[in-house]
Each structure stands twice: as C-alpha cells, then as structure tokens.
Amino acid sequence: MRILSTLILVLGDAHIPDRAYEIPREILRFIDSLSNIDIAIYTGDFTGEDVYEWFKNLCRRTYAVEGNMDYLPLPPYEVFNILGINFGVVHGDQVYPRGNLKKLTKIAHRLNVQVLFSGHTHAPFVDVYGGVLHINPGSLTGAWGGGGGTGIPSLALVEIESIEKLGIKVYELYRGKLLTTKHKIINLKEQTSR
C-alpha cells in the first residue's frame, strides 16, 4: 500500500541582486528535478522581484514572508495546516540574537503552530525546542548575512507522512555537489507533548 505524503520545499535568504547574482545552477537543477513538490516555503529576503516571480511558479501552493531587507508586499508571517499539523513561517528578524530558539518558540506558541520555518541566520538548522520543531533552510545562494552565516548555499525538504513521521533533509552545496548534510525523522506527536 502506497502512503501518500506531502513534500515541502523550504528556501530563503537569496538576497538577489544585493548580495548574490544568481541561484547556483546545481541548486536550480535539483529543484527542477523535484516534480512532486506540493508546497514551497520562502523564509524571506528575496530582495528582488525576479526571484519572487520564479518562486511563485514552483508549485500551486506557496507561502512567502517578508524579510528585513525585502521591499515586496509580503506578510510578516504565514500559517497553514497539513494533516492536522499547524505550520508557521517567519523571517526570524523578530528575534535577537538571530536564530534564538527560545524566542522563536514564543513566536510559534503565539501563532499556535507545531512547526516553525524561519530564516535570517543564513545557516541551516533543524531543532526541537519547547515542543516546537524549528526548520531553517539557510541561504539559497550562500549570501553573506549580517550576523554571519555559513557562506554555503542551502535548502531544505520536508516530507510529511503523518504527525508521527516528518522527514527533514537539509542540502548544502559543496564544491559543485549538492549533499544531504542533515537528515532527521521526527515524530511530532512525541516532540510536542514534551
């Protein structure tokens, strides 16, 4: 029996054209190869309309938020539900220091979400804190971030089979090769009951 799942592509912080010229071709090829994307998330800082227009055409269901360097008419947060799981999207510039899980968790609780996608750090992470699953895709171009970052282009994929099974993969571009650098399977039901 085939289990139907939902595939979410998570991107952010391209900073084109202010800090990067283009999305690396290896990443574009990888995204083009994903014919089964159900939802695309963007955690802010497109900084230009071209990347925003490209993003909106990745799939039928997209959610994007305004980053601290965006001048596009985007909301500060998005909330949606899949299989009874509440998801939220913010840029992350609402907290200091960047990526502070305690403060991001407060935002998640305010939004009533179990999973929070955020950006702004330019460094990917997947972590559970305060009963909230936090996913940050890093920077799509590896652009420099005001608070640091890795300088390595990255993105994330989330595959949802049920509240008991979320698979998260972070991909980073090293020497022309897109590698899986983080892979976690999370039972959200267990994590959020702690």
Description of the molecule:
By secondary structure, this protein is an alpha/beta fold. The chain has a single domain (6-192), classed as Metallo-dependent phosphatases (Purple Acid Phosphatase, chain A, domain 2, 4-Layer Sandwich). The chain is built from four helices and eleven strands. The strands form two sheets. A six-stranded mixed beta sheet has the order 3-2-1-9-10-11. The chain has a five-stranded mixed beta sheet with strand order 4-5-6-8-7. The N and C termini lie far apart (32 Å). The model has no long low-confidence stretch (mean pLDDT 93).
CATH topology: Purple Acid Phosphatase, chain A, domain 2
Kindly estimate the percentage of residues that lie in beta strands according to DSSP. 35-45%
List the helices and strands in order: EHEHEEEHEEEEEEH
Termini distance?
32 Å
The largest beta-sheet arranges its strands as: 3-2-1-9-10-11
The helix/strand class is alpha/beta
Characterize the overall form.
Answer: globular
What is this structure's SSE topology?
Layout: E1 6-11, H1 25-33, E2 39-42, H2 49-56, E3 61-64, E4 77-82, E5 85-90, H3 101-111, E6 115-117, E7 125-129, E8 132-136, E9 154-162, E10 165-174, E11 177-186, H4 188-192
Parallel strand pairs: 1-2, 2-3, 5-6, 6-8
Antiparallel strand pairs: 1-9, 4-5, 7-8, 9-10, 10-11
What distinguishing features does this structure have?
194 residues, alpha/beta, Purple Acid Phosphatase, chain A, domain 2, 5-stranded mixed β-sheet
